[in-house]
Design goal:
mainly alpha; 2 strands
Length: 115
C-alpha cells in the first residue's frame, strides 16, 4: 500500500484506504493531546467522523482494561469451568453412593427398562 503525502506534509491514506492500528493509535493520541479534529482529519485524509469513532473505540478499550471484573471471554470461560466442576462433583457423589451400596452388599436401585 502506497502512502500519499498531503499538502501539509502529513502522510494520508494509501490506495487501499486503510490505516494500520499503530497509525490509528497515533492519530487518536494526537487528538487527545489537543490537535484540532478537522485539521487532523484533513491532514490524514479521513473523515472527522472516522477519527471520532477511532477515539471512542480507543477510550472504551482503555476503560475496559481498567475493569476489575474479567473480560467477557474470561468470564464465560470461568462460568463454563464452574459448571463443569459442578457436574463432576455431582457425578463423583453418585459414584461414591454406588460404591458404598456395593460395599454394603445392598442392591443398586433398579432402572426401568425402556420399551
Amino acid at each position: 500500500m502506497k502512502a500519499e503525502t498531503t499538502g501539509s506534509g502529513e502522510v494520508g491514506l494509501g490506495r487501499g484506504g486503510r490505516m494500520s492500528r499503530q497509525r490509528k493509535r497515533d492519530a487518536v493520541l494526537r487528538l487527545l493531546r489537543g490537535e484540532d479534529l478537522e485539521t487532523l482529519s484533513r491532514a490524514l485524509g479521513v473523515t472527522a467522523a472516522t477519527l471520532s469513532s477511532w477515539q471512542e473505540a480507543f477510550l472504551a478499550a482503555g476503560e475496559a482494561s481498567l475493569a476489575t471484573r474479567p473480560t467477557s471471554a474470561e468470564g464465560l470461560e470461568s462460568e463454563r469451568l464452574k459448571a463443569k466442576l459442578g457436574e463432576m462433583l455431582l457425578e463423583r457423589e453418585l459414584l461414591q453412593a454406588k460404591i458404598a451400596a456395593l460395599e454394603a452388599h445392598r442392591p443398586l436401585a433398579r432402572r426401568r427398562s425402556r420399551p
